[in-house]
Task: inverse folding
């Protein structure tokens, strides 16, 4: 056992030396994950801020009928521009207007007579701009209705006079406040962590398995006195190290972004939370590394390994889609038994500042089980000559 | 000393080796001659414990490949011709140290042994440079040194002349002579009649997985001309329909 571990360390240190001397590994395994997540988040922030600034200046709307108190009210607002349109649906679809207000032709008469009136606002739900301008228009609609509910008007003239007033909402209340942290912490960050823990080890696994077959170093390696379990363990440690490095660089990139970003909530992760996140990243990388190594070992060439492993990275993301709408309070023990899904549950909890030792313990145990099964399977394959030499 | 005892190997439905038996003495080079796919590499892989035989056994210095593969590997050095099997991002010295460690050499002996090999094969000038920057000949020298880093008593050469220019091939054949002088048992596989005739003491002709002839090269050289030996060998490895 000790001898196997010693041999595994010899293989591990040699593999790490080779990997560290490879520029490609450094760029794709370390540098890219470090800058990819923050770059992505900055681009999202930048585009959202651009839209917000545009909305602060002007929102184009159309109203079905002129000569009424709502039209007068909207005309008085600097932020709202009333546009005449012949085909409201076409104008909404093309983005010419953000909202179309349908009101009764005799709305003012109905208000004076205290009868029910109709005021509907229609948006183009497929337009991001329209959806973001919705709160602006709704604020004015609310203000209009508030005045109607709290004041009495005896004539249409007085009614229109009362609404010919500009209301200044402060920019803060007027603009929709988009807190991107929910999007980041619930979707992007767990997804990127999973992706990089998986992809970070893919290249290394190929290099250390089918790559060795291709370069002709595999047979001299097998002809040494080192036992095969030691060789495989060493390779698994090296593959995991690269997966962990990629996962950690992704996490570091995120932390860097949160330190300088102003548009999202700050990360609220405690020191134990960070350490447990590290543990989960290590186990996750080990889990993916063992699978990647297994596939790499089975493949005849790097090309064949890539064909199998590229879809594998995407397949590993499928469980993440089921967690998008999941609330962390809904996590059950059954969820914690589903591969990948359980990892995301834990990452979400930790990023929300919750350290649930029971959940982490269960997930870690499952991960150790998956890694062990995969490792036993890889070792069995590694001892099968028809797999090693593929005849 | 290598004893190959009735070795057979079947891959799915293909019989790669059929009841192969011969022995290799100390200080002897046995040339394994056969066309591509004759079963030469399969036999060398079985001797080096990379493959297990379907039937039969191989005894290397009293260690059976079936019962004691670890000790068999300790006694064997293997060299491949077309692929040098070196790690290109490691230096020549690091390659040797890595294989020495994997072969279980004590750390205290590794540096001395590696320095000795660097001197012996005259590559001190580039011993600390990454192998990826080497020419084919330089790589070949390092590969040779790597194959004997653990000082094996048995050497296997799998088509060492394949794809090499005369300069690189000379390094291999000189090394083979050196191994014989040191008392090692050597098996050298090739599909080149000339190289087998020139460098082996005994020749084993293998055809479609079967040993069709074993003879003493020196005796044959005394009895026959080069052309006659070639004709004998040709008749052994050609099927009847190919002879027509």
Result:
């Amino acid at each position: 056992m000790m001898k196997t571990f010693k041999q595994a360390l010899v293989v591990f240190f040699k593999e790490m030396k080779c990997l560290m001397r490879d520029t490609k590994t450094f760029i794709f395994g370390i540098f890219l994950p470090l800058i990819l997540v923050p770059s992505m988040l900055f681009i999202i922030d930048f585009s959202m801020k651009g839209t917000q600034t545009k909305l602060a200046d002007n929102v184009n709307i159309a109203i079905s009928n002129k000569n009424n108190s709502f039209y007068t009210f909207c005309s008085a607002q600097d932020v709202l521009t009333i546009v005449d349109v012949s085909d409201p649906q076409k104008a909404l679809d093309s983005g010419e207007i953000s909202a179309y207000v349908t009101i009764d032709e005799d709305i003012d008469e109905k208000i004076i007579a205290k009868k029910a009136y109709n005021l509907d606002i229609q948006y183009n739900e497929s337009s991001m701009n329209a959806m973001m301008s919705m709160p602006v228009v709704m604020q004015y609609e609310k203000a209009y209705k508030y005045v109607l509910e709290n004041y009495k008007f005896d004539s249409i003239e007085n009614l229109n006079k009362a609404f010919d007033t500009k209301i200044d909402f402060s920019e803060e209340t007027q603009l929709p406040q988009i807190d991107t942290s929910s999007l980041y912490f619930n979707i992007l960050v767990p997804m990127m962590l999973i992706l990089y823990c998986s992809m970070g080890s893919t290249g290394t696994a190929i290099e250390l398995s089918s790559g060795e077959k291709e370069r002709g170093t595999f047979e001299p390696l097998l002809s040494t006195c080192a036992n095969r379990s030691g060789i495989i363990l060493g390779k698994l440690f090296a593959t995991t190290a690269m997966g962990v490095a990629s996962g950690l660089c992704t996490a570091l990139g995120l932390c860097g972004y949160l330190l300088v970003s102003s548009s999202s909530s700050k990360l609220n992760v405690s020191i134990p939370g960070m350490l447990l996140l590290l543990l989960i990243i290590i186990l996750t990388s080990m889990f993916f590394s063992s699978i990647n190594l297994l596939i790499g070992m089975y493949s005849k060439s790097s090309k064949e390994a890539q064909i199998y492993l590229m879809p594998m990275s995407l397949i590993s993301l499928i469980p993440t889609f089921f967690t998008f709408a999941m609330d962390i309070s809904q996590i059950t023990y059954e969820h914690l038994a589903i591969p990948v899904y359980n990892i995301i549950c834990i990452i979400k909890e930790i990023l929300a500042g919750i350290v649930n030792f029971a959940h982490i313990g269960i997930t870690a145990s499952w991960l150790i089980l998956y890694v062990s099964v995969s490792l036993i399977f890889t070792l069995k394959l590694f001892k099968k000559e028809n797999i090693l030499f593929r005849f | 000393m290598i004893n190959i005892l009735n070795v057979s190997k079947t891959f799915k439905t293909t019989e790669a080796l059929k009841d192969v038996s011969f022995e290799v003495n100390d200080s002897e080079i046995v040339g394994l001659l056969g066309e591509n796919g004759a079963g030469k590499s399969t036999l060398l892989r079985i001797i080096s414990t990379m493959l297990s035989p379907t039937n039969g056994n191989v005894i290397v210095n009293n260690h059976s490949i079936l019962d004691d593969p670890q000790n068999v590997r300790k006694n064997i050095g293997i060299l491949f011709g077309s692929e040098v099997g070196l790690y290109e991002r490691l230096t020549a010295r690091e390659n040797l140290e890595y294989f020495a460690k994997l072969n279980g050499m004590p750390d205290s002996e590794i540096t001395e042994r590696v320095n000795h090999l660097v001197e012996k094969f005259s590559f001190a000038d580039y011993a600390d440079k990454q192998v990826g920057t080497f020419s084919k000949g330089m790589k070949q020298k390092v590969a040779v040194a790597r194959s004997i880093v653990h000082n094996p008593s048995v050497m296997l050469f799998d088509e060492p002349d394949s794809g090499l220019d005369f300069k690189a091939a000379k390094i291999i054949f000189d090394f083979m002579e050196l191994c014989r002088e040191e008392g090692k048992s050597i098996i050298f596989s090739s599909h080149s009649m000339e190289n087998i005739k020139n460098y082996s003491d005994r020749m084993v002709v293998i055809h479609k997985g079967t040993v069709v002839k074993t003879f003493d090269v020196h005796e044959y050289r005394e009895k026959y001309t080069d052309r006659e030996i070639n004709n004998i060998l040709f008749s052994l490895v050609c099927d009847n329909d190919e002879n027509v």
